[in-house]
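Researcher: Please predict.
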Amino acid sequence: MTSTYAVLSEGLEKRYGDVRALRGLDLAVRQGSVCGLLGPNGAGKTTAVRVLTTLAVPDSGSARVAGHDVVREPAAVRRRISVTGQYASVDGDLTGAENLRLFARLLRVPRTRADELLERFGLTEAAGRPARTYSGGMRRRLDLAAGLLVRPAVLFLDEPTTGLDPRSRNAVWDAVREVASLGTTVLLTTQYLEEADRLADDIVLIDEGRAAHRGTPAELKALIGGYAQVVVAHPSGLPAAAAVLDRLTGSEPALDAEAGTAGAVSTDPTLTLPRLVRELDAAGVPVIDAALRPPTLDEVFLRLTSGTAPRTGTGTRATGTTTREEHAA
């Protein structure tokens, strides 16, 4: 184990009855970074968080968090971390302000920090109401605020923005960026791929209890190449367009006869839009539209965890022979 990593696990195994939730999970999260754990439902993300936060004991393997062994030194780990789970755990009989001020007092944090977080998460007007009267999104924001009262060595966020509206989600993202900029390591599990793309320095794709792929968002996107799509002027041109894409991209195109489109993931990093247009023209394929763009993290997730290739999208486009830049939302 090395001090370079705030979270380091080797060969973590965890079984619940006949279900192997973790199957030799290896993680290495650099200090001061934001690491996103992505994976399908049931892949083992929440179990990994439970083990790393001392809420579950692994059957085998080892893990250290903030320099302490999660099995032999659980109390020391708990003193160095903060955890926000999937479900709000605030006291419904206390007001929003009372909840945060209670936690602030227990954690020996100035009361002003609680008031600051109430304002940041848009809860100032509701601060005097019992938390049981809050909507689900408001309770979630209050729970997140409680988890950010202190600036721990490692902050665990297990799907922190589930059920939040875009404004509240942006508030959480800003808070995560702030604590990370101050040196806190953040381990984030999420089902929102845009969230991981915006926040994470590194991403680990967990599948069937193992770390299947890891790297920066850009590195993971590079694993599946770009995406090329053609809209033909007439359905009769679809086979020829598909043949061009097959030759240029090195992968089998996905065809949609009704929409008149052919698309394929490109394994050739040198493929350019002008070359695609020239090849289509040389093959005598009249096209309405052509596009070439990098993959989204959603497409990386689908392809690397389930083998599903992307079929649609926007990016660098050409209509006829005139090109224009268009960025995916």
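Model: The chain has a mean pLDDT of 86.
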